[in-house]
Write a structure and sequence with these properties.
- The protein is α/β, with parallel strands linked by helices.
- Helix content is 35%, strand content 27%.
- The chain has 14 helices and 18 strands.
- The longest helix has 18 residues.
- The radius of gyration is 20 Å and the shape is globular.
Length: 401
């Protein structure tokens, strides 16, 4: 390994991950940042070049075009590709990595553009191809999915013989001051939130209506928040990989203003992913909505407050009941001071860097396609504390009903 990383994408998460890679120049000796809009990449390189010993490069690439991606990979010859583009582009980037026998890391699973359905089946179908090519694909190395999987694997390794119940709680107590804005890509965020909820219990997924199940929880350093059951992709992989599991759920907090605006937008058709004809042109309402909403990358300087994301688990150790809660608290303003993004981008960008680091240094490298919980969690947990996402744990957590 030569310490060369290609990062695709130049949004908020990429900005955070790129900054952390620049800080970690012992591993990442040479970094290329590529996206459709090269000027965004150039601006980030200009910002960080004087603060790192890593050699930095930029390139323009269309991540929907596999042949363009292959040409760029063959030109730069990276040890790994860190995909921080859109989930719609996962497969074209995986195809390019296969063609060039290059390791692959991403933070979110593939979504088809024409249906709001996110699941791992498309990427898991690459398992044998990546194994035969002798390269690693690490899927979902963000926070949720990503750190949440590592948290569960760490609990399984150290505190449980069987984990029966997992609740993943994602709380954003930040305030950006806008009546309505999304903390990451608006199109992806709104598709995720407006879809039916699902949770896994006794071997099956049980579907709920959007926002049908609500709970309240008192989050450390944030306070009491209303949270809603959503479907999130790590439920699919953790249901397969955690021994003894009987139920796993995912909850996310939302403020009333966000929900009211979202309902209004849904009612007038602005969250639809079906193309419509407007003045002789075909447009997708949600893509138009994305263009008029605040850019998530612009929220950093105006967001105050903290996030609190973690996993509450219940199970058995030596036939005795165990409860365990492991979580991270992150401050929006501290993140902005360090890397120029708010905490949502930071909490995804740091684990993206760590996943790339562990693949590139060989700690998490083995041929095939894997989710984070399938590797030894200890090096990742140690690195979280070192690189800006320290975690806390409790053996007497308040449980979710």
């Amino acid at each position: 390994m030569n310490g060369k990383l290609l990062i695709i994408g130049a949004g908020g998460v990429s900005s955070a991950a790129f900054a952390k890679c620049c800080q970690n120049s012992e591993v990442f000796k040479e970094i290329m940042l590529a996206s459709r809009t090269k000027s965004k990449c150039d601006a980030l390189v200009e910002k960080w070049q004087s603060k790192t010993t890593a050699k930095l490069h930029t390139a323009q690439v269309n991540a929907d075009n596999t042949s363009e991606l292959i040409a760029l990979i063959e030109q730069f010859k990276p040890d790994a590709v860190l995909n921080l583009a859109l989930p719609y582009q996962d497969l074209t980037i995986m195809d390019a990595c296969l063609a060039t026998k290059t390791n692959y890391i991403d933070t979110a699973n593939y979504e088809p553009l024409d249906t709001a359905k996110f699941e791992y089946k498309w990427q898991w179908a690459y398992r044998e191809k990546f194994k035969e090519a002798g390269i690693t694909a690490l899927l979902g190395s963000g926070f949720d999915p990503g750190v949440t999987g590592v948290f569960c694997a760490y609990a399984m390794k150290h505190y449980f013989d069987e984990i029966h119940f997992i609740d993943i709680l994602d709380c954003n107590g930040g305030d950006h001051g806008y009546p309505f804005a999304t903390n990451f890509n608006p199109e992806i965020n709104i598709r995720e939130v407006s879809a039916n909820g699902r949770y896994w219990e006794e071997g099956n997924f049980i579907e709920t209506k959007p926002m049908e199940i609500k709970r309240e929880y008192d989050f450390e350093e944030v306070g009491m928040k209303e949270m809603y059951l959503l479907y999130h992709e790590e439920l699919e992989s953790l249901a397969q990989n955690i021994k003894g599991l009987k139920r796993i759920r995912f909850f996310m907090t939302f403020g009333q203003s966000y929900l009211t605006h979202l309902k209004c937008l849904e009612n007038v058709g602005m969250t639809s992913i079906k193309p419509i004809n407007y003045e002789g042109k075909e447009i997708v309402p949600i893509q138009f909505l994305k263009t008029v909403l605040p850019d998530p990358a612009s929220l950093g300087p105006r967001t105050k407050g903290k996030t609190n994301i973690g996993c509450i688990m219940q199970g058995l150790k030596d036939n005795k009941p165990v409860k365990y809660y492991v979580y991270n608290i992150c401050d929006h303003e501290e993140c902005y001071r360090e890397v120029g993004t708010q905490a949502i981008s930071y909490t995804t960008g740091v684990p993206a860097m760590l996943g790339a680091m562990l693949v590139m240094n060989g700690t998490w490298r083995k041929p095939g396609v894997y989710n984070t919980e399938e590797f030894d969690p200890d090096p990742f947990m140690e690195a979280l504390n070192k690189w800006g996402l320290p975690w806390k744990e409790s053996f007497e957590p308040v449980l979710v009903e």
